[in-house]
Amino acid sequence: MNIEIRKGDITKVHTDAIVNAANSKLLGGGGVDGAIHRAAGKQLLAECRRLRETTLQDGLPAGQAVATDGYDLPARWVIHTVGPVYAKTKDKSDILASCYRESLRVADELGAKSVAFPAISAGIYGWPMDSATRIAVDTVLAADTQVGTVVFVPFSEDAEGAFQEALRTSRDA
Ligand code: ADP
């Protein structure tokens, strides 16, 4: 698998699929979720509403993933996943790792060969960047998937450095 780190706005990335750090309601929100909905256009929200009325009436649980079209985005699909809210007193690393694994599983179902990820849970959900990016890189490298290219899209220099360090140390290992 080819792994790239490309700092910037994930809504501009031309991979087959981009991953959205959504919330369980799946109806848009702040951070990267808001940016993706703005860039994809209203049809994305309409498809999310249909999912909520049919297969996801209780919302999307943390650690799971579901696909929609990408509409006005350069990416053909959006894979929505819900990261865990960070909690000092409870280790939710398994749920965060599951976001990456399940997103790649959905990508395989779609036939997507390239997938871009933001730093899931590392914004509003409060996960420390170093830990979030390490879980991201380790889980993707260990995944059994047909996806050939994964692009991590840090939104800040801080996040970019954390992804680079996680990749460097995992490859050393
Ligand atoms: P969560 O609720 O899972 O923490 P956020 O959207 O708040 O999700 O943040 C996840 C990460 O995505 C943060 O590091 C944030 O800086 C980053 N981010 C926000 N907007 C974008 C964007 N347009 N492209 C890529 N990453 C983004």
TrEMBL record:
<dbReference type="Pfam" id="PF01661">
    <property type="entry name" value="Macro"/>
</dbReference>
<keyword id="KW-0378">Hydrolase</keyword>
<dbReference type="GO" id="GO:0061463">
    <property type="term" value="F:O-acetyl-ADP-ribose deacetylase activity"/>
</dbReference>
<feature type="domain" description="Macro">
    <location>
        <begin position="1"/>
        <end position="171"/>
    </location>
</feature>
<protein>
    <submittedName>
        <fullName>O-acetyl-ADP-ribose deacetylase</fullName>
        <ecNumber>3.1.1.106</ecNumber>
    </submittedName>
</protein>
<dbReference type="InterPro" id="IPR002589">
    <property type="entry name" value="Macro_dom"/>
</dbReference>
<dbReference type="InterPro" id="IPR043472">
    <property type="entry name" value="Macro_dom-like"/>
</dbReference>
